[in-house]
Structures are given as structure tokens and as C-alpha cells.
TrEMBL record:
Organism per entry: Paenibacillus helianthi
Entries under InterPro entries matching the protein: Post-transcriptional_regulator
Pfam family, one: Post_transc_reg
Entry superkingdom: Bacteria
Name of this protein: Post-transcriptional regulator
Length: 84
């Protein structure tokens, strides 16, 4: 079965809403400064290598993101920013 084709421009409002929703969830857990863009940056970091995922995988990646994975992403991003 082929993966469904989707267009980021057509779905950008919905994707942004999903990311904002996840950021709200993290804020409820005490991560006050998380924004929707931060969630998107974390989730989409692998898409440059892997290519555009199927829509169901994208939705799953956003909604299943754990706070621990997000914090690991921030730590690595900060390390790379300081060292390269």
C-alpha cells in the first residue's frame, strides 16, 4: 500500500494546531516555554534525512512525542550550538 501523499502548504494550519496542542500539553507538565514551533522543529528534524513521511506517521510523531525525548532533543541541539 502506498503512503498517502500530502502537501505541507495545504495542511500547515492543521499541523501547526497539532504542534500547539502538544506544546500546551508540555506546558501543563511544567515545561512553560515550549511553543508549537519548538515541537515542529523536534519532530521534523529527521524528515530532512528520511524524506516526507506518510501523514499518519507525521500525526503520530507529533502526538506521541514524550517530554523526555523533547528534552533530549533540546540538550543535543544546545550542545551542537555550543560546539559546532
Amino acid at each position: 500500500m502506498e503512503s498517502e501523499q500530502w502537501n505541507y502548504e495545504q495542511l500547515s494550519d492543521e499541523i501547526e494546531a497539532m504542534c500547539r496542542s502538544k506544546a500546551e500539553e508540555f506546558r501543563l507538565l511544567g515545561y512553560e516555554y515550549v511553543k508549537g514551533k519548538d515541537i515542529w522543529d523536534c519532530v521534523s528534524r529527521n524528515y530532512a534525512k528520511e524524506g516526507r513521511p506518510a501523514l499518519h506517521k507525521l500525526v503520530n510523531d507529533i502526538y506521541s512525542l514524550k517530554a523526555n525525548s523533547y528534552m533530549n532533543y533540546l540538550t543535543i541541539a544546545a550542545y551542537r550550538g555550543l560546539n559546532g
